[in-house]
Amino acid sequence: MNNSLLQMNNAPTRTHHALTIAGSDSCGGAGIQADIKVINSLGVEAASALTAITAQNTAGVRAVAVMAPDMVRDQLEAVFEELPITAAKTGMLANAGIIEAVLDCLASQAQLQLVVDPVMVATSGARLLDGDAEAAMRDRLLPRAALVTPNLPEAAALTGLGENLAPEKLGEALLKLGCKAVLIKGGHAAGDQVEDLLLTESGTRRYTHTRRKLRVHGTGCALSAAITAFLARGETLESAVDQAIAWLQLRLAGTWTAAAGELAMLPFANR
């Protein structure tokens, strides 16, 4: 056996496990593929439960096939029987039946920290959550969340308030819905600076970045996956958000342009 194989066999076993519950992105820049790549890159083993299959690229979503709620339930039960999941994220949940299946399976996982990325509309504009599911997410899923990570349009839709309302007010309204913390992503606001806002019961943190000229595919998925990975590694919520935002800013510096659409792609492979 050569030295490289010996080193691989003697490598420390990873002990942290995170779960992504989301839809697919056939080009790998968002969705469950991006989540798995992000979680693994941060030293955490990734498990997954697929909610929908999409045929998409940066130009748009061509087709969507949604999983039956029982299939989502079966995937989650299999994961929880096998792995000590300590943090999970949700992305595209598609409909109320899937949300209820997720909640049923989470009922036995009191120790699990849940990050809810309320995916409603793809960056390309395609709608990914039906109307009934919005109510289920707001009334049933958000109270289970350790953190919810909406952009401004999603925060407005979940609260029923105007998108032009101050982000602090939107965040405060979301906290009243029962989630423990809210990260309002400010990329949809106007201006040369982008401000993300973390609201918890103990206070508020602001993260300010220079706006980049390119629109980038999958940033919301990647950020919530990174937060989930850091939580699985035992970081506090505030530390997980700090490190995930810093990680994403580094990745944004290396974006590349795809052939089909106008959106840039995040680099996930180590170069």
Task: Describe, in plain words, how this protein is organized in 3D.
This protein is α/β, with parallel strands linked by helices. It has a single domain (15-265), classed as 3-Layer(aba) Sandwich (UDP-N-acetylmuramoyl-L-alanine:D-glutamate ligase). It contains nine helices and twelve strands. It has helices spanning 3-9, 31-41, 69-82, 96-106, 131-141, 152-159, 167-176, 219-232, 237-252, and strands at 17-23, 45-57, 60-66, 87-90, 113-116, 147-148, 181-184, 193-200, 203-210, 216-217, 256-257, 264-265. The protein has a six-stranded mixed beta sheet with strand order 3-2-1-4-5-6. A three-stranded antiparallel beta sheet has the order 7-8-9, with helices on both faces. Strand 8 (193-200) and strand 9 (203-210) form a beta hairpin. The longest helix is centred in the C-terminal third of the chain and has 16 residues, at 237-252. It is globular, with a radius of gyration of 18 Å.
**What is the level-2 CATH architecture name?**
3-Layer(aba) Sandwich
Read across the widest sheet, the strand sequence of neighbours is 3-2-1-4-5-6
Q: Helicity level, as a percent range? A: 25-40%
Overall pLDDT level: 89
Defining key terms:
271 residues; alpha/beta; UDP-N-acetylmuramoyl-L-alanine:D-glutamate ligase; 6-stranded mixed beta sheet; 3-stranded antiparallel beta sheet; 9 helices; 12 strands; globular
